[in-house]
Design goal:
The complex is a heterodimer of chains A (633) and B (270). Chain A is of the alpha/beta class and 633 residues long. Chain A is built from 24 helices and eleven strands. Chain A has helices at 13-33, 39-50, 64-83, 86-91, 93-117, 122-133, 140-145, 152-180, 185-218, 222-242, 247-258, 267-289, 294-297, 300-328, 332-342, 347-358, 364-388, 416-429, 446-463, 477-488, 540-550, 566-569, 583-588, 617-629; strands at 2-3, 6-7, 405-410, 433-441, 470-474, 492-496, 515-520, 530-533, 556-558, 574-580, 596-601. Chain A is elongated and about 80 Å long. In chain B, helix 2 packs across helix 9 (227-239). The radius of gyration of chain B is 22 Å and the shape is elongated. The chains are: A alpha/beta (633), B alpha/beta (270). Chain A binds chain B through residues 12-13, 56, 59-61, 63, 110, 114-115, 117-121, 124-125, 128, 179-182, 300-301, 303-305, 307-308, 311-312, 315, 318-319, 322, 356-366, and chain B through 1, 4-5, 8, 11-12, 15-16, 18-19, 21-27, 103-106, 117, 120, 212-215, 228-229, 231-241, 269.
Amino acid sequence: MTVASITLTTPAGSAWEFVVLFAVVILGPPIVGRARIPGLIGLLAGGFVIGPHGLNLLSVGSTTIPDLGQLGLLYLMFVAGIEIDLVLLRGHRRSAIAFAALTFSFPMLLGAVVGLALGWSTSASLLLGSLLASHTLVLYPMVAHAGLGKDPMIASAVGATVLTDTVTLVILAVIAGTTAGSGSTGEIILTLLIGLAVLVIVCFAILPLLAQRAFRIFGSDRTVRYVIAVEAFLIAAVVAEVFGIEGIVGAFFAGLALNRLVPNEGRLMDRIDFFGSAVFVPVFLVSVGLLLNPSVMIQPSTLALAALFILCSTGGKLIGSILARPLLGATAPESWLMWALTTPQAAATLAATTVGFEIGLFDETVVNAVLVLILVSVIVSTLVAERTVDRVQLPPETLPALGQRVLVAVADLDAAPIAMRIARALATAHSGVIEIILLEAAGSPEADRRANLDRLDGLCHRLGIDAEPALRVTDHRPRSTMLAASDLVASIVIAAGFADDDWAQTSSLHERAPIAGVHGTLDRPLTAVECVSTPPVNDQAGYVLAELVAVMPTPVSTCETRGIALLDELKPGQLGITRVSGWDALTSVRAPDETALLLLAETSTRHAPDGRAGHSSEGAAARTEIGASGSVS
Amino acid sequence: MRLRMLLLVSLLALGLAGCGNLGSASGTFTPARRGLLTVVTQPLPTAGFWNGTDARPTGGLEYGIARNLARRLGLRLVVRTEPFTRIVAGHLDGADLALSLITPTSAREQVLEFSSPYINTAPALLVRAGISVPDLNSAQQLRWAVESHTTLQATIADVIQPDQPPLQFAGREGVLRALDSGRADATLFDLPAAVAIAHGDPKLTVAAHLADTEPIAAALPPGSSNVQAVSSAMRAMLADGTIDRLAKRWLGTSITDSEANVPLLRTTES
């Protein structure tokens, strides 16, 4: 283009495509957000606007966005796996499985029957059924924000998601493998079975170990921790593809496998979410939007197909939710909310549809009909959830799992290693996060404070703990600790190296989190430390003690001696775990050389509303186990 | 509950009735002539893509694709030839589709429909053996030949920008003759085509490829209702490795390998 004597070049190339892409990412979600439509619809619509059926802003043959979209699809499925609250699934295992069966089987059946009735191939019909049966927890943040996250029925619906998504992806793996694979059917199925077995072993046995080790060895840099997580799901995707299984299955499995290592409220999860929301997932959604073709979408056959999909998916899930009332004891509002939670179609649906399109099983008509389904399912379920959420009775308040947010307050750096190791064991067991504060006296030199903070930061890296220690200058360490516990909504406080501090003065502050004091300079992995505990007692402190004992990575032997008398029994290299009755004992006790002590203050245990000491259902399970055996092992 | 079920079933039945013409999830194909898949291409041979003669094609990547497509659709393959310029001008003359190394462009989209691409490839520099093209400057000093009415003509003008205007020929045979006779030093072809030509002619070699890729797709008559079915079949052939197997057989290299084995010529756009 020549304007006067200036020659201009039509924008093209990767930079231009990213300019257009990020414009969609910036503008799409807020524009649709004004109509209270979820942002993903804005990204899909944005993809259409810039795509070949819209303004055609991308050059013909450009593969930048579609290729990056493929990576985004893997990322999306990884995030879907890693974000799922497996604690809820464990806590409501039976009802989650039952509801998963209900909410999956009816849409699956209806979808497959409709596909066959339309004259589709068996593969296409089964893939249709499975994609209609999957769902994405688009509305869970809204429901959790309303305080219903712990409602047993809602928790069951959330727990069911991991099962429905897994079954959907396994069906996808089988169908894609048999459709796109070469060789006899028997060979293909054998390859898929071996592949799935290898994938499960790699994802659930090898990857977590490798990731954990990599976090410890290379994870001092937070960027590297993120890259390790990305590398993990890419490895899983490659392993899947080697066996002719779609990479998204591997990515999803990798997400599930690393779920425990990457707590939802942790810093690494923040980074995974950040990059996912900023680049990878939007790129995928925009790349799907490129397929959106209004001339196909408004055809009567596409709209009729979309109507069928909507009927099969929402209708099938409605039947499942209605049956949940008598079978699971859900109330009417609860069953509506379960329906609203499990109706939105997004991640798994888009993934299965995209793969079906890429392997030539689905055409543009099906893709556009699915996009209509996504739009309708998200809008309708949002409306239903908004109207229902206030009608569900709030569940009785339960205390968080003990390891949900562990606060380590460090007064003495020498006691920090063992305290941080205990915190890590507790947080890992409950998929929780660790917060660390360094307490420095008000008059201490600035240089010393900085040096100590750097040392603590280094210790975090050495132990593979994804936390950023914060400095708190104080003239009363227990008070500052308890205020920090309130700030951070800690589920337990582990006070490291407090000596002769007056905790009793903080009695008005420590209603929520139990306090455990750690003394001693034992700096060895917990697996190399022999743990000795006093017997648990059936009171609140006893339950907390039992949970602390239960998270120890090696069997804990029981010492009949109670309280601080355990001190006399401790041998070098041992960690003693016990309860102490008074505040004074929490700080005045000194661990013998080469030993460590974890003291739990009886007076600091928390009360559940019904008067029982309560944590999560998982905690309850641990208590039952201990009570039944009479000893801790 | 019973009423809801009845309502659901009724709505399903209505929806099914509304989708009566959707016989396949991957699109339906209605041939121009019953039982036949008529494919048009430029006069044979096109090395590696259409081997043999107009009357008797014997092999080649696009011939293999046509045969595979006919088998998937349950039709018998019939091949006709037309000059490339007529094909890209929209004159398919009753054929179901054209397979002739056609890159979709906005001008061609005015007169043709295009399927999903079956190859995404970069233009490659086919030169006389012994000529090396290490950089853009060397490329600009060569004498260029090009087949007119192709997208490669514009690529030479816009990206290579040779010092002398390129020689233009109506067909690829003229271009190849110019190279053989020494009237021209270099030309551009789609990389797989260049590789196939160099494979069969020791006097020619593929010196480099450009960075930007172009899709190659099947062309269908305007308004054809078969686009989706052909597109689905192309994607299926890519996914199950059919096209890569055909490329290895007829071009001597897979589509992806061919790009990796040829050096990249850096231009101002790459």
